[in-house]
Amino acid sequence: DRVRVAKPATRCVVLFMHGGASQIDTFDPKPDSANRGEFRAIASKVAGVQVSEHLPGLAQRMDRLALIRSLHAKEGNHERARQLMHTGYPPQGGVEHPGLGAHVARTLGDPDQAMPGQVSINLPGQAPGYLGAAHAAFTVVDASKPVRNLAPPQAIAQARIDRRVELWRELDARFALEHAGPRVAGAHALGEQALALTNAAELDAFDLELESAATRARYGQGSFAEGCLMARRLLDSGVSFVEVGMRGWDTHEDNFPRVRELSAELDRGMSALIDDLVGSGLWSDTLLVWLGDFGRTPRINPRGGRDHFPAISSVVLGGGPIQAGRVVGVTDRDGESILERPVSVPDLFTTMALALGVDPGETHVTPAGRPVTTVDGAGRAIGELLG
Fold first, then answer.
1. CA 226 to CA 223: how far, in whole Å?
2. Alpha helices in the chain (DSSP H)
3. Global pTM value
């Protein structure tokens, strides 16, 4: 790709809306349409850009963010869409594409660092595919609860732990001699990573109890809000890629009361994360991305819900080299079609890769011997977003 980024970000945080958030009820409201639903649109800090009334904090921070309102895709099944929106590739036989996080961990992660290269909070994220288990995400099941089994067991003496580790390594090495292969090597790499993590000086990054009551209140309660706080701590500790998942956006019925509640937690947690990244100086080094499975139907169904709608969805980007205040793409008055600047998923992933200094065109060879590029070669960078 001919687009060049002078100063790519060195880390990334993805906020993933599982189920697919309605673009009309979040970042592309349609106040003059019958499809607008129950929510009002409010002005943001960027002239002419409106968002949902239930995102007041983000409205006041839009001058630090950029919007894509014209992302389009074809995958309307949750599982297939999540794979597409994590890898940039639709599911296809013969190739297990890695998530973007695995590429970032491989390219930007420090191999000598004890902390994981990528962490997935609340939900498991995407597998590392052909890059191997060494680049898999460490999963935090629920950010609102303490992370279990991080530190070595206190009831066992360190000398005994060391003997057990020595025995494990000896047995593992013998097994590898007879069963050499990427899966065995990957399993060993995960074991070594787990051992390193238990002794990491930065292990406190997972402990939200070390934060002040005022800070925790600013982020709010709930697994997503607390996931945003943990993400900030992990980015501070040197983790290259963090994904925070938020459940509940599959609103086929009772869309408006459910989205109202979800938006409150989203707005508070994401706003606090932006503020802290800006305040610490990490904003210019961190790419922030908000997205989900797909969009939701502009028309409201008889159950007061919105159904799957991959034809249009919104994406929010910020930090790093992203040109703040920009809006890419225009949808029509009713939110049913794209009028200007359609953006494909490969376009989005090419842009994110370049923003992170990851070569989207790098060729990898899969275990089956098939050459594939980091990002689908059909993608073209969204040049107006990259500085």
1. 5
2. 56-59, 78-87, 100-108, 158-178, 182-198, 213-219, 223-237, 255-280, 345-355
3. 0.92
